[in-house]
Amino acid sequence: MQLLLGFLFAILIATLAYRAHSLNKSGAIAATFTGTIIFGIGGWQWAILLLTFFITSSTLSRAFKKRKQGLDEKFSKGHERDAGQVFGNGGIATAFAALHFFFPNEPWPWLGFAAALAAVNADTWGTELGVLNPTSPRMITDLRKVVEKGTSGGISLIGTLAALAGSALIGILAASLLPVPDSVSIFFIVTLSGLAGALFDSFLGATVQAMYYCPTDKKETEKHPVHTCGTPTVHIRGWKWFDNDWVNFSCGAFGVIAALIF
Ligand SMILES: [Zn+2]
To answer: Among the four 88, 95, 118, 128, which has the fewest Cβ within 10 Å?
Structure first.
């Protein structure tokens, strides 16, 4: 019964998001699937955590749009999320919601779920709000190296603080929505894991993420096989299969691993 309600609620949210151009068609189908599992197995507390991530990140992607004009081409996708992005951001959280079905009385599926969402939320807040930093970001692997805004692997003070805030929001909700053994510890574990995941995301962006180059615009881009201008892009660094969706997936995974260590 709860699964059916979850399915109906997931369809409703996915349809609204599709209408609002936050999701494209494949993204809406993927969101219905992940939403059904998270709402249907977890319940309303799990739904609130997922929706907090989804609503704040979609809103931030739209806000400051003017500021980011010209930066958009650095990112491989616009603000309409597709299935790859939905699974990249929500795949691990969905897996923990499914594990809750088999271990309904254990607190760890909730902790893993929250840590994965804290990481992707921190990453999104950091990426979207980081462009507000007055100065150019620096490479996470070499802090003396100043890079152009929007460069994968670049970090800034505002971006890092925004990531911490995004993570802490999920941390507060994780500690207060469900009765957990020690809510103060849960808050700190989830918040720090989320920040660690977001920093790991930047590290991957600086090292192994597939990056391309547009010979026409003489610019580095995540876009492949063609750039926004229509020119085919050339692979310059990173693993070819390791695109932004895999980076996001690894960000969530690292958040979970950090939560296990803390
Ligand atoms: Zn171009």
So the answer is: 95
